[in-house]
Each structure stands twice: as C-alpha cells, then as structure tokens.
Amino acid sequence: MNAPNESEVRSFMQYGHFDDARKEYVITTPNTPLPWINYLGSEDFFGMISNTGGGYAFYRDAKLQRLLRYRYNSVPADVGGRFYYIKERGKTAWNPAFLPTRTPLDAYECRHGLGYTTFLSEKDGLAAELTLFVPIGETCELHDLTLTNRGTLEKRVQIYGCMEWCLWNAVDDAQNYQRNLNIAESEVEPSTIYHVTEYRERRNHYAYYGVNAETSGFDTDRNTFLGHMGDWSAPRAVAEETSYASHITGWYPIACHRLDVTLAPGESVRACFVLGYGENPKDAKWDADGRVRKDTARRVLAKFADSAAVDAARAELAAYWDRLLSSYRLVSPNEKLNRMANIWHQYQCMVTFNMSRSASYYETGTGRGMGFRDSCQDLFGFVHMVPERARERIIDIASIQFADGSTYHQYQPLTKRGNADIGSGFNDDPLWLVAAAVCYIKETGDFAVLEHPTPFNNKPGSEAPLLEHLRRSVGYIRSHLGPHGLPLIGRADWNDCLNLNCFSETSGESFQTSGPSEGPVAESVFIAAMYVKYAAEYAELLEQVGYEAESVSVRLSVQEMERAVLKHGWDGAWFRRAYDAFGDPVGSKECDEGRIFIEPQGFCVMAGIGVETGEAKKALDSTREHLLGEYGVELLVPCYTRYRKELGEISSYPPGFKENGSVFCHNNPWIVCAEAVIGRGNEAFDVYKRICPAYLEDKSDVHETEPYCYSQTVTGRASGNPGHAKNSWLTGTASWSFVSLSQAILGVKPDYDGLRVEPCLPDELDEYTVERRFRGCLYRIHVKKTGEQSLTVDGKRADRIPLQDRETVTVEVTV
Ligand code: BGC
Ligand code: NOJ
Questions:
Q1: Per-residue confidence (pLDDT) for residue 421, from 0 to 100
Q2: How far apart are the C-alpha atoms of 687 and 701, rounded to whole Å?
Q3: 429, 497, 714, best to mutate for ligand 1 pocket (most atoms within 8 Å of CB)
Q4: Which of 15, 355, 600, 758 is spaced 20 to 30 A from 520 at the CA atom?
Q5: Is the pLDDT of residue 2 over 50?
Q6: How far is the CA of 815 from the centre of ligand 2 (A)?
Q7: What pLDDT band is residue 361 in, cutting at 50, 70 and 90?
Q8: Is the CB–ligand 2 distance for residue 595 below 6 Å?
Q9: pTM score
Q10: How does strand 777-784 pair with strand 808-814?
C-alpha cells in the first residue's frame, strides 16, 4: 500500500469542522473516536446527546429524577438514547443519528449548537432533519423531525420514535432488579405514552412521550418491541414493519410511537415528538376517573401541536444564547481565539454551571453532585452571563458550610443538602467561597449579598450574613496551621488525590472519606498560596465595606503566610507542594519521585509570591523545563511508579494518568495567569494554546474527545502514550481557561470601581477589541500594541475604566 499523501491524511484526521457563523460544531462522520456529545437544557430539564443519538434526560437531578436509561461501559458503546428509526417498505431500517442500526448512510451530519443538536442524514432518497432541544421555560425536550422524499417515486415509510424509561432513581434502577422488574407501569393515550412507575405510591411526577401527529401504532414493552433476545440495532417490530400495542406490566418499560406516512416525490412530513416531565401537587395527584392527572403534559403537548410554536421555541432559545454571549465578545484577527472567546469558552462555562461535576459521559450522574470548590471556581466563568443565578449559587454553596468554617464537599442538586457520602475536610474548600464571593461582587457591585442570611449546614435558625461565612472560611485556615505555619491539608486540597492523612491499605476504600480527616502535621503549600491570594482579596473586600481593623489583621496574617511559603515552601528552583504526615517535603528535589508539581508554581505566582524577589520567575522557568509537554503542562514529574500509602490516591494511578502526572488541564490556566503576572505574554499564550480545543482540532485522532470543549485530563509523557484526553466537559478548566484568556491575556478585569485593562500579549497578537457588558454599560475596548502604555475613556486619559452611567462607552488602550 502506498503511503497516503498529505491531504488524504488531513481528511482522515478530520471528523468535522467549526461553523462559527452558526455557532456550531459540525461532525461529518458518526465514526468519531469517542461519542462527541452536547448538552440540552438550561433550567430544570436537561439532556445529553451524542453525535450518534445516545444519551439520556433528567429533571434537575441526574441521579434521583432520571427519565431515560443509559448503559455505562456498554458494548456496543453508547447504548441508551432517543432512537428514531426510518423504515421504507421493504428496505433497510436506518437512523438519522446512525445508531443503533449502524446502517451506512448516504449522507450524515451532526450539528452541535448552543443548547440543541441537529442531525441531517440521507438514505435511499429519503432525507431526515432531526433537531433536539429543550424549550426555554418548559420541562421537556422537543425532537423536531422532518422527512423528505428526495426520490422520483412515491415512498411508503414508517417512522418509529422510541426510548427506554429509567425507573427514576438511576442507582436503584441499575441494581434493585428483584423489585424493579415488577413495578413498571404506563398509560397510553392516542399519540402519548405516560411513564407512571411508582406514581401509585409516593411519587407525584410522571414522564411522557408524545407526538403532534396521528400515530399508527405503539409499544410500551421492551421485550415485545425488540423481540426475544433482540436488541436496539434490529427491533423485531421495525423489521416486521408493525407495532404490537404492548402494554407493559413490570419488566422493561419503553415508549414507542409508529407513524406511517406516504410521501410523493419532493414531499415532506414534519412531526414533533415531546419527551417531558410533569408534576402534580401531592394532594391532587389523581383525576376524577382515578387516573394520573396530566395537566402539564396536556398543556405542553397542546402548545407544541403546531409547528409554528416549535419554530418560535427554537428562536427563543437562539435569542437566549445570544443574550448570554453578548456580555463578552472578542473581535480580533485570530479566528481561533474569537471562536473560543465568543462561543465555546462561554458555552462550556454554562454547562459546568448547570452540571457541576454530576452528569457527563464520564460522570455517571449517580455519584457526584454539585462540588463546593468546583462550583465556586465555575462561577468565575458564568458570573457575567447569569449574575442573579450566580448569587443564588453562592448562597446554596455557603449553606452547606459548617459553623466552624469547614464544609461539606458537595451537595445534591435536588435537595441542596450537603452530601455526607462524599464527606468534608478538604481544607482548600473554604477559601474558594471567598474567591467566588469576591468575583461576584466585583462583577455586579452587589455588596448587599454580604448581608444575605445564610444558614450553616442548612440548619434553620443558624442563619448568619454571608460575610460571616467568608470570615469563618478565612478563620478556619488561619486556625488550622501545621508545624511550618502552613495550612493543614485535611483530606486533600485542590488535588483530591493528595491524601496525606489517609494511609489506606484496604482495597476499594475511598481515599477521600476513609482514615482521619485531618492530621496535625501534613501541610499544603497550595492552600498557603490560596490564602495569600484570597485572604488578601477578603481583606480588600473588608476595606470596601468599612471593616478596617479586621482588614489590617487579615493582611498581617497574609504577610506571615507569604513569609512561611518563602521560607518553607521554596525548594531552590520551584515551590514545594506539601509536607506529608511525617513532616517530609512533597514536590521537592529531595524526593525520588514527584519532585516538582504544577499547582504551587501557578498559584504561588498568581498570589504574587516571589514576584519581586525572583522566585516566581524561577518557578515558572522550572515549570517549562520539567513539566511542559506537547499537550500541556503535566501535573508532576517524575510520576510515582509505586503505591505510597503516605501520599494516597495520587500514587494509585499508573504514571502519566490523572493526578499522577497527566496534563490535568484545570491547572494549566493557572500557569497562563502566572506567566501574565510576571509579564511573559509569549509563554502565557503558548500554554493557553497547548490545551485549547480550537488549536487541537487537527489532533483529534490522538486527543479523541470533543474538539469543541476542554477535557479534564490528557495522558502525560510517562504514560508512554501521551495526548489522549478523557473526561470531557465537566472540568474546572472551562472557567479557568476563559479567565486566563479574557483576563490574564486580553486583560479586561472587573473590579469594585470599574474595569481594569492590563493585557499581557504574545508577539502574535497586536490588536483587538473586547466588547464587555459590565454593570449595565457596554464597553468597547480597543487595544493596540504600540510600545506605550495609555488608556483613554471617550477621549479622556485614565488609569482604569471608571463606572459609567451611559449605555455604551469607547475605550482606547495602548500597550
Ligand atoms: C479522581 C479525582 C476526583 C476524585 C473525587 C478521584 O478518583 O482522580 O479527579 O476529584 O476522585 O471524586
Ligand atoms: C476533579 C474534581 O472535581 C476537582 O474538584 C479536583 O480539584 C480535581 N479533580 C483534582 O483532583
């Protein structure tokens, strides 16, 4: 075989392309290296959908209120979804999304856009267009399907729309068969199937699947529909071009509608399927005939009976996203940067706002909920888009804090209560609350939030002003110091896998919840750096609200902490990572493995430590020298090659994976921000680009995850197989990389009294404009590299952009 020429290699490497005008990523083959997914929903009803139609939907909580069943670790991959089968009489059945039949298509395109996904496919002269989205204000998905006869002869076609119900609690659904195989119930009405399992007892909610067209058949029993030993790739009903009107009694409930249509050449048929969630007051669950009350479903189905309403909902969704994205817009000669800044950075930030770390193709939705530190950091990326919701989020998070300032690590989205299964004692957590609150107030000027009565551990009667929560956060760290005057690490700090007090020897035990939650010796240089940064921000906030004396005392403690870091946290050429429970350094030249870690290099410099005395620059030089690989900055080197119980989970991973020396993307933007602190624009931009999706599109074959969002981790050099990404979508990388671009590189930073503009530019970027909506005013900030520093607001020189009461303001900046 001849070697392929370059253009062949390129087309082989390409799975799609960005369509910036439509704000979409267009996937042109179902054979992506992994399922490439998108999120539907922005309020209470959410869905995930892959480029082959897999995924599931849930109402508010992916564990407790799951509508669709999904099979993890399944073979074939990606089983569970909303399945549309097209069957022309006598021909092969196919799916517009390719799965589950896998019938080769004559044309295929999957367009993942903002809150919707569209499939455009063709087979044997039939063209399908299928768009799925969650309409604003409703708790349902719309699946808008148009089928067109592109052939020259009349076609008789059957359309099957189907899905498999999950019995609400996704964990119980996957394990409690002895009960669950007996409880499934549904009700069928013309064109609508209701899933009402457990409604007879303590549930007052149901799911429904309807269609705004006359149906010719239905099924609700999976075994009947698929046939004995059948599977979704070839349902018996579809093969036989029929339906069996099966009524589920226990076993596996599904919902399937069949539409029979006859299409003349050129003719189209359009049908909108609705997958929804309905809820009734507990004391008004039943209608007069003793059947499930269906007011919600009937209202929603009536609303979308008319396709004009479906079109209007699409338009409303587009307007919703335009509004969100209009708060920040970059106009530059760099197409990739514009694409990231104006679309994908902000989109992924909204997804992390909605999901935290709960539901993705790597987070099952059954384990983790809303992370304390995760949501606090996510807020940096969404606060400018949804300030009111950011405020609510801060209060929800602060409400799971304990009275001593420590906190639960996560909460369940449905109940908003701290999740005891995940535990507490992660000593970085409290300071992230300070970071989030400061960020929110700088964005909005809403100092009143500091007075909001906020409970501790959700206990009624324990409410104290939010400011008191921040005070206790800072106080907790100040009063939990170890032998070197550095903060005690507790169960772990940002690095969940640095478990210095756990000493686990029992297989399967959780590193985050077993063993003592805190030892008196193990300390974290990382938390020390956080303290220097965020306690200083707290002190500044105190000045803003008139607590001078407290501010002075906090500032003194910050200086003390900075001294402790320079004395005990400096290793000679970089910052140390920690001290273990024996008082031995972690991340030091004295160690045989794990000699240098990324986290303290980024955070100490971001906190300003060693900037004047030279340690900062040395630390970042060492970072580049030791940790920088083609795909980004690795977490540590050399990776741990054996399990070390005194270090915990970090040494449980094979070298080059996850916390043991992969490129753990979340902390790469810290290096970008740190480089900007010492004014190195080229180095900052270099690191930014190495993990940036828009710059990695050509490497999709290696990278494998979606080229339009960040992943949590990319295998490091020590893995022997570097560059493979995993855990796409739900990662703190989303917010931090947006911050690193918009604030550290492009330099537009919200502050209490206006916007500061402090760019740190690489050689390749000379000029750009940022349109930034801030406290009701649209600022057009034009930045140009001239070698001279200046800033003028509507022609007047200033050192920052003061708050304006006009609608638009023009700012000229030279650097
Ligand atoms: C993962 C971490 C994660 C932690 C807590 C560990 O297994 O490696 O990245 O934060 O679990 O869920
Ligand atoms: C993922 C977790 O969600 C995050 O909170 C943590 O900081 C990183 N893993 C690093 O361990």
A1: 84
A2: 21
A3: 497
A4: 600
A5: no
A6: 36
A7: very high
A8: no
A9: 0.97
A10: parallel
Residues 349-364 have a mean pLDDT of 95
Which is the closest atom of ligand 2 to the Cα of 730?
A: 3
Active site residue 496: yes
* Phi, then psi, of 221 in degrees rounded to 5: -110, 120
Quick: pLDDT tens for 606-638: 999 999 999 999 999 999 999 999 999 999 999
Sequence-distant (6+) residues with CB within 8 A of 496 are 426, 511, 512, 649, 659
**What single-letter amino acid sits at 766?**
D
Half-sphere exposure of 560 (CA within 13 A, CB side): 13
Going by alpha carbons, the residue nearest to atom 9 of ligand 2 is: 496
What's the pLDDT band for 446 if we cut at 50, 70, 90?
Answer: very high
**Spatial distance between the Cα atoms of 149 and 157, rounded to a whole number of angstroms:** 10
Which residue among 666, 710, 713, 714 has the greatest number of ligand 2 atoms within 8 angstroms of its CB, and so is best to mutate? 666
Q: For strand 663-664 and strand 711-714, is the pairing parallel, antiparallel, or unpaired? A: antiparallel
Q: Which two tokens stand for residue 510?
A: 């959780």
Q: What separation in angstroms does the CA of 185 have from each of 45, 78, 394, 541, 660?
A: 22, 26, 40, 56, 47
pLDDT score, position 419: 87
Residue 714: exposed, middle, or buried by beta-carbon count in 10 A (0-12, 13-18, 19+)? buried
Ligand 1 mean position to 222 CA, how many Å?
Answer: 36
Ligand nearest to the CA of 377: 2
Q: What is the pLDDT of residue 423?
A: 84
What is d(CA 342, CA 348) in angstroms, rounded to the nearest whole number? 11
Give the position, in ligand 2's atom list, of the atom nearest the Cα of 495.
Answer: 11
Closest ligand 2 atom to residue 357 Cα is: 3
Helices and strands in the chain: count of H runs, count of E runs:
23, 41
The band of 3, judged by pLDDT with boundaries at 50, 70 and 90, is very low
- Name residues contacting ligand 1 (CB within 6 A): 368, 496-497, 512, 649, 658-659
**Exposed, middle or buried by CB within 10 Å (0-12, 13-18, 19+), for 298?**
middle
Kindly report the length of the chain. Answer: 815
Element (H, E) at 466: helix 466-478
**Of 392-406, 415-429, 448-462, which gets the smallest average pLDDT?**
415-429
pLDDT for 485 beyond 70: yes
Above 50 in pLDDT, residue 4?
Answer: no
- Token pair recorded at residue 630: 């083609």
